[in-house]
Amino acid sequence: xxxxxxxxxxxxxxxxxxxxxxxxxxxxxxxxxxxxxxxxxxxxxxxxxxxxxxxxxxxxxxxxxxxxxxxxxxxxxxxxxxxxxxxxxxxxxxxxxxxxxxxxxxxxxxxxxxxxxxxxxxxxxxxxxxxxxxxxxxxxxxxxxxxxxxxxxxxxxxxxxxxxxxxxxxxxxxxxxxxxxxxxxxxxxxxxxxxxxxxxxxxxxxxxxxxxxxxxxxxxxxxxxxxxxxxxxxxxxxxxxxxx
Length: 244
Hints:
The protein is α/β, with parallel strands linked by helices. The chain contains nine helices and twelve strands. The chain has helices at residues 15-27, 38-45, 64-71, 88-97, 109-124, 135-142, 167-178, 186-193, 203-218, and strands at 7-11, 31-35, 52-55, 78-83, 101-104, 145-149, 154-156, 162-164, 184-185, 225-228, 232-235, 238-241.
């Protein structure tokens, strides 16, 4: 497969390993930059394009999962985990957080490159052709109007594609759409989903959201739910709500 020139970030605190990956990928014609921590990656990414990020989990300070969770809402950035952690629970957590692939060290460079190719195929795939839409649907889509029905537990996209919701997903969407356009802080979201439980683990909310996003992707939808790092979530589109 002939890939275009990619901009690849390598987030790895082992200098020798990071340099080795950088040298290999540059020899393939790609533009590569490295970071030794999540903090330095965030700073550099503000000014540097990133098509695919190779992320180690065991980083100093914030771990690699924090990067995966931040970037998974961006459909134009591929995420590949490269880690020494091979246990299934960590693998499932990373994939649930939004990673495209999970590689366990030591990684063969040929396997790494094939994985990058597979990730790029997903990113560059043309969108699926949509069915003909009537005037009402086109008008709604132009305004990005989503429709939420709490009693039927459905969220309907501007193209009339309907996303069914579990009980927990329904509680999350109910709160977010009731305050569309507003940033809802983590404590408020936790209370809405797990009222009566003694918990401050926002990761439980993130798991619900990631599963919902995966369901939406299977239908060709990109949810307008945005995560604001360290603060909370916002439903970033107009939404009409049916009466419960």
